[in-house]
Amino acid sequence: MQRRYDRDMTTIRLPSRLIQTSRLALTRFYFFYALPRRSWRRLCAACLCLLLAGAGCSQLERKERELVFSIVPGEASWYDGRPDGVIDKRIAVAGSERLHAWWWPAARADAPALLYLHGVRWNLTGQLFRIEQLHELGFAVLAIDYRGFGESDGALPSEQTVYQDAAAAWQELARLQPDPQRRLIYGHSLGGAVAIDLAARIARKAAPGAGGLIVESTFTSLADIARSFTFGWLPVQLLLSQKFDSLDKIALVDIPVLIAHGTADQTVPSGFSEKLYAAVHAKKRLLLVEGATHNNSLRTGLPAYRRALSELFRLRQADAGPAPVQAAG
Q: Over 90: is that where the pLDDT of 77 sits?
């Protein structure tokens, strides 16, 4: 019988060398999530046998961060330039470092504005298709690259630096759209965890107010998703330094929350969004898009997306895109 290690079991002790080596191996497994489950389990079992560490803890943590973010340098191969109307921006963050951002105003000056937070691997040039879809829904969009991605300053990102980057970008969006009820946060995949952290900061009055939170194809924590592909008994929460633990944070959020997920997502199964939804205490909506995968929920479920935006965030029909907003069934 498998033994399950709950998140509050803090008395477990593992050899420090085992933790160091297993942390590196397990993170590698997570971001090869295209592997079949059997391969995940074999690899995870192998990582527990790595008792001899050839690198120090800081080096292992750095390697873990490299694998977590898996940054692809340069422009995405399918990128063919910014659309007309997209403005390059630089946003000050820590010290003298700056974030690269795109600001795409909507056709209407009073349109709702949205902060776009992307996931791993691709910089803004690989995100344009989803940014375009959100803009077509009527949003003005501020999209950022975290430090270490694209043209942003900085080197290797971490969980804490991407949280800081999102907070700095939110301050900029508050300047661009002063009405807090017309400002929303959007995060895709790992960007969903960043968006939830920002929304929790807003709930603690540590950032300017917001009108809503939208997360798509995201997860409860890195440890949970790694465990789902390996052994349920493996205490991965003790092995990973990059936690991205959203379950407790989303319970703090006090603005309306839309959680969207494709039922055919093989990268991050939709059950994680169902768990997040159950933890939300604020006004909420779960949108499971039948047949959609990790990257096409918005396009596949566009009519349902429009309805959810209109109903949950009380956006006017013109705000939710050019197509008619259908009445709720």
A: yes
As a whole number of angstroms, the distance between CA 52 and CA 85 comes to 55
Mean predicted confidence (pLDDT) in 73-99: 94
Give residue for tokens 């991050």: 268
One-letter amino acid at 115 equals L
pLDDT at 56: 53
Contacts of 54 (CB under 8 A, 6+ apart): none
Classify residue 79 as exposed, middle or buried by CB count within 10 Å of its CB (0-12, 13-18, 19+): middle
User: Which residue has 């895109």 as its token pair?
Assistant: 321
Query: How does pLDDT run across 22-74, given as a tens digit for each residue?
Result: 554 444 444 444 344 444 444 344 344 433 344 456 777 888 888 889 999 99
Cα–chain center distance at 281: 20
> Considering the domain 87-312 in this protein, what is its CATH number?
3.40.50.1820
Instruction: Indicate the domain borders of the chain.
Output: 16-69, 87-312
For tokens 């197509």, the residue is 323
221 φ/ψ angles, rounded to the nearest 5 degrees: -165, 160
